[in-house]
Amino acid sequence: MRRRGDTFKMKIIVTGGAGFIGSNFIRYWLDRYSNDEIVNLDALTYAGRPENLTDISERHGQRYRFVQADIADEAQVTPVLESSRADLIVNFAAESHNSLAIVAPGRFFRTNVIGTQTLLEASRRLGVARFHHISTCEVYGDLDLDSSDMFSEESPYRPRTPYNASKAGADMAVRAYFETFSLPVTISNCCNNYGPYQYPEKLIPLFTTNLLDNIPVPIYRQSQNRREWLHVLDHCRAIDAVIRRGRAGETYNVGSGIEKSVEEITELLLRALGKSDNLKRYVEDRPGHDRRYLLDSRKIRSELGWSPEVTFEGGLQETIEWYRANPAWWRPLKTEGPVREDAWGKRT
Ligand SMILES: NC(=O)c1ccc[n+]([C@@H]2O[C@H](COP(=O)([O-])OP(=O)(O)OC[C@H]3O[C@@H](n4cnc5c(N)ncnc54)[C@H](O)[C@@H]3O)[C@@H](O)[C@H]2O)c1
Fold it and tell me: What is the pTM of this model?
């Protein structure tokens, strides 16, 4: 986008800003860019937590506004876009939990595909200067555990789960609005994030909070399956780089190169929290459980000069400490999540 002067004020709509990455992004952006204003458009599903942003309202009240709205509802989206006169839309809003997608796939396609297209259409009509879409490594499908391959931005999309497929569909809609309507879009496809404010349904916060309470952790039988891990603030810095320096119409992979298996993460958490192996509980894999993803992120590193700043060991320790220090945030959520990880088969 345009180069920033000290006095340039950018108006931004962040969708899904009450969720994990969106709330970290709003905090990152308002702390860093003191003139900019953000409207957070979020439907507040079970994953959207206004309390993630309490400090933002207190510290940046003048520059931050929350609007409860559903991205898949044009009648709700259009007035927000019109009244905010946004230069930039950053679309985080999504149904994001693979396990929930197995029991309720329809809501994933509605929000992730129709919701994204609804935002694109409103952005096109109002002439938004940049639409940045947050996507995932999971659109590319999975890799053999012993493969030497990586997914580049040119890799074909081969989604395997309803979540992956709905994110792939959204990416296709974003690309179509660039090619067909010349809407200035960018997409970032990121690997697994971890950090503060992640809903305790996802691996690291689920296991950390269970272990803090001495509750067994549900490990899928395919516990050698691996993920590539990036601290959420490194993801925010990558999005910033793409928004400011990325080329319209381009996709950028965002990866750390740090792979850990579920078994390795479990061991690290057990050791860090001083807990015994008795708290490991193996459960059936969820259907369509991807084995491995690894991104080739040379493009964002060489073209935009981004690279991760947080080490995995340091970031994980900090994250564990955050959950230890904030039980009032996560404890009420432990019973609210709509799906259980041992829902696929008999526990052993
Ligand atoms: N968490 C990860 O590891 C990861 C990795 C790569 C990409 N992503 C992508 O990043 C984005 C954010 O992920 P997250 O982990 O913060 O998710 P999250 O589930 O924590 O937050 C999603 C947010 O979207 C909101 N939302 C859901 N449906 C909506 C709708 N119809 N209208 C408006 N708001 C709605 C929710 O209320 C919530 O605040 C998603 O697009 C996800 O696909 C996540």
Answer: 0.96
The closest-lying atom of ligand 1 relative to the alpha carbon of residue 22 is 16
SS3 57: helix
**295 DSSP 8-state letter:** B
Cα 257 from Cα 294, distance rounded (Å): 7
* Sole residue written with tokens 């950090």: 195
- Rounded CA-CA distance 348/345 in Å is 9
CA of 344 to the centre of ligand 1 (A): 24
Q: Is 253 in the pocket of ligand 1 (CB under 6 A)?
A: no
Q: Which atom of ligand 1 is nearest to the CA of 72?
A: 31
Dist. CA 15–CA 77, nearest whole Å: 10
Give the strand pairing for 130-136 and 88-91: parallel
Query: Which residue segments constitute the domains of the chain, with CATH numbers given?
Result: 11-195+230-258+293-311 (3.40.50.720)
CA distances from 255 to 15, 130, 199, 227 (A): 22, 23, 21, 10
User: 256 near 191, Cβ under 8 Å?
Assistant: yes
- 8-62 pLDDT, tens digit per residue, is 789 999 999 999 999 999 999 999 999 999 999 999 999 999 999 999 988 988 9
